[in-house]
Structure prediction request, 798 residues.
Amino acid sequence: MRIPDDVRARLASQTSQLWGEPGVIDLGIGQPQDALLPVEEFRRAMASAAVPRFQLQYGIERGDGLLRMALADALTPRYGVPVDAERMIISNGNSQAIDWCCATLAHPGDVVLVEDPTYFLARAIFADHGLRVIGLPTDDQGLLPDALEQALITHRPAFVYTIPTFANPTGTTTSADRRAAIVELIARHGSLLVADEVYHLLSYGAAPPPPYCAWLDSGVVVCLGTFSKILAPGLRLGWVQAAEPTLARLVGHGTLVSGGGLNPFAAPIVTAMLQDGTALAYLDRLRSIYAARVGVMDDALRDAFGPERAGGEVTWRTPEGGYFFWLQLPAGMDAAAIRPHAVARGAAFQPGATFSPDGGFGHCLRLSFAYYGEEDLARGVRIIAETVTEAITAAATGG
Amino acid sequence: MRIPDDVRARLASQTSQLWGEPGVIDLGIGQPQDALLPVEEFRRAMASAAVPRFQLQYGIERGDGLLRMALADALTPRYGVPVDAERMIISNGNSQAIDWCCATLAHPGDVVLVEDPTYFLARAIFADHGLRVIGLPTDDQGLLPDALEQALITHRPAFVYTIPTFANPTGTTTSADRRAAIVELIARHGSLLVADEVYHLLSYGAAPPPPYCAWLDSGVVVCLGTFSKILAPGLRLGWVQAAEPTLARLVGHGTLVSGGGLNPFAAPIVTAMLQDGTALAYLDRLRSIYAARVGVMDDALRDAFGPERAGGEVTWRTPEGGYFFWLQLPAGMDAAAIRPHAVARGAAFQPGATFSPDGGFGHCLRLSFAYYGEEDLARGVRIIAETVTEAITAAATGG
Prediction:
């Protein structure tokens, strides 16, 4: 049976995950821009790849020791804390690692505590495992210890899921003092902390506080890192740091026991790119590109909403890392209702309520600067700002 | 912090999943031999790889359409039935695909029906999801329809898990008539059939009956295929065939929605190896090597246990595909108790009870010819046969 030509054409176009609508600058997309992907770096790495036999064999359950060693060497100076390759396992990226935490560290019906707002697609993974998600309040230093402690007592969660640095969607970074307090509370109440540190290495100013792996000895933290935002999401390659016995629980996942370690195939290629400096050089290039985009977006927002970022009707903080601006419109505004009007004019965003387990934050919206270049970012912000301003005016005049 | 040299040496040795004990020919290992892995084929494919941008981006949830098209083109003549690239999704191999079926097609507490004996590591995955595993009797044509129907009525399983062709551990192939009857029964009783077709393409004689994807229109079959046994397990790359709406349920898995399709990175490399014939040429080379090993092992078994394979004390059938010989010792013998004596002499096997949800088949054992070359296979069989023969003699004389 030969596949018909129209089916062939359709299949040939089905390669990447697609979020956008054609002709719309969708600042809701939290993916890296195609044009920024390190195609040349990978072409060079693969052209000279050695192809060791273990790359093709069932991998060791904890993941290639050579990759873990290269990661420890590369991360230690960047994290500012010693990274222990023997308390690390290789993952298929953070989405799979979250899935894996749900499977091995929780039971159906258990509670997971999350920041409200949080990464909305993590909630889809929690739902797969029958976990109940409860949101916790935050301030500009991260999770609020008092509210966290009350929830630990009330809900006895399987774990707390946090995005501690340059968080999705708010850009908030949990302060070092707050981190220490959170670890202490979680240890005292016998729970675990799953820290999704996907944006940690994407800093554009001062270095953020140490990642939670600095508290590995507490025995209660599980730290998830990934190459998705710093090298290539298509790799499906990441790392998980935890102390025993939590590490052993994770490695006991049935798919690891059966299929061996995750992603032996990509490991040696990335190991080589870490060892020869290619990966970190690319990361630093990304950081400088994103830092410039933050400036462009900040300027465009100030042009549109006025210089009084904190005092105006629409407020935001300039992100110091990560992927996102988080805008707060006046209370009572509904960003989801505004979105179709923006789309009609050619731009889109993620409404805030998407990120809230309770549907809160309806007056907020998330803009990403990862997927578009500077010109599109400025144009997208202008369109969104016009639409938002009209909606605010209409609300004020009862229109 | 520099990693100490002794830790470096330890990490550098942690690359592949290890099952064997040093100095022991372990015919229990169900992995391909390192020496057979297609290192040169991959070196060539990677040296000339194009690195399309989508290889590095979040992949489309169903998996790269170009790989699905190349798979459909390659599988259609080999399967002898039309393979529909639009009713296929790309997996991380069959272990992950089983995990995925558990997550999306079952709920904790549900029953899964399996052949008794079955692949023991699948049971670890079912356990991760809180599923109850119930074994069904088989004969040399596969699952027994009457017993299957009774179990479908009694247990109302989420799905039936089967290894229909050159099964692990018995080597049994379900006949075409039996397949049709099984599909009809499962459809009538509102369940699903998850067919793990990992060994289908590894045939050494007549072509096996069509894989279960021939019954895709029934809406009740989910067929799992993988490159693990025919190209390289380290790829963590496979394919799942199903009809809507089951396909949509699988694609709704939270990790796919969040992280995109599985393994965009390996996909274009394997697509190229399918398109230029490298992958199928390698498969055919493997088939001829394994066919020769079957002959060597069969000869060694006959030399040890006598020519009357079916009438002797130890019986087996010569496998027509797959990885395994399944030996039956006299009733009452305990293969697990014999194993340490074989190990002490330098050879090992998988005791039959490992494969039984109820701990049955204690008098059976599984030998694989995948991991060792002909000389080691003959030597391993001789050691095991000596140990088994001594145990039979001792039992007969009450020793």
